[in-house]
Specification:
- The complex is a heterodimer of chains A (176) and B (126).
- Chain A has 176 residues and is of the alpha+beta class.
- Chain A is built from 4 helices and 7 strands, in the order E-H-E-E-H-E-E-E-E-H-H.
- The radius of gyration of chain A is 15 Å and the shape is globular.
- The two termini of chain A are 14 Å apart.
- In chain A, 38% of the residues are buried.
- By secondary structure, chain B is mainly beta.
- Chain B has 2 domains: 40 residues, no CATH class; 68 residues, OB fold (Dihydrolipoamide Acetyltransferase, E2P), CATH 2.40.50.
- Chain B has no helices and 13 strands.
- In chain B, the strands form 3 sheets. Chain B has a 5-stranded antiparallel beta sheet, with no helix packed on it. Chain B has a 4-stranded antiparallel beta sheet with strand order 6-13-11-8, with no helix packed on it. A 4-stranded antiparallel beta sheet of chain B has the order 10-9-7-12, with no helix packed on it.
- The chains are: A alpha+beta (176), B mainly beta (126).
- Chains A and B meet through helix 2 and strand 6 of A and strand 10 of B.
- Strand 6 of chain A pairs parallel with strand 10 of chain B, so a sheet runs across the interface.
Chain lengths: 176, 126
Amino acid sequence: MDYNIKKFESLDSASAKAKELAANGAEPWTVVLAEKQEGGYGRKGNAWYSPEGGLYFSVILPKSNIDDLQILTILAAFCVAKAIKEDYGAEPFVKLPNDVYLNGKKVCGILTENIISGEVKSSVIGIGVNTNIDYFPADLNTASSLKKELGKTIDNKQFLEQIIVQLQNTFKAISQ
Amino acid sequence: MKFKFNNQGKDYEVEIAGQVEGVKITVNGKDFLFNDLEVAQVAAVPQTMIPKRDLSSKEVRAVLAGSISELSVKPGDIVKLGQKLLTLSAMKMENEILAECDGMVKEVKIAKDQKVKEGDILITMA
């Protein structure tokens, strides 16, 4: 499966942009990538700290039934964890349904949003990975970054492509 | 008497015939009966009619069990097709429920953070 990455220097929210593009007919597997987000959010509208250095992207998913979307949401956390483990030899912990921890600190959050008007019109999965973030505000004392925990800089582009391929393989497996 | 005419690009074939009960006018095969007191359509619904507007209430139901994480409308609000009505947190996902048609919010049967079951009526539209 192909994918199409649309990169933005800054967005209010990669997921909001992806939903807007989906509403205007963007193809599935369009990936909206933001170098930073001014208004990143997670479940129930909780803010997601998104400074430059992190990896923030949202993927327009193919039309699917709601059960498959839920499974994909859960498995997306495993995709990210697998990439961390395979690339950096670390032992991440998946806190179900959609958070990834490393050394007891949260390094990734995932949120799937469905647009429903009688039926599922579009779905977007948003993934925020704290890759190369050096500093977190004091109130985010449970958050950390891969760079801080692993002591090395992460190649965001390579990491992104690896996660997307894993997502596509997972999606293919559950939708068959 | 039979005649044809064209109105705004559409052809009409009309036949007018006097009958005991009044005057029968046939337009493109559809009969209309006129008498002194009333006009009665004999045939079925004519093809050229104003699209019927459904004035009955419409219910917006929960497509999933979950909780209401955001309520975007209140009774009396006029909404457009595709406008966000509410967000339902369900199955670890956020589900934006949009209006399926233009209309007015008649009744909001749920509150923010309320848990709902699949099939529950959330909003009625007029």
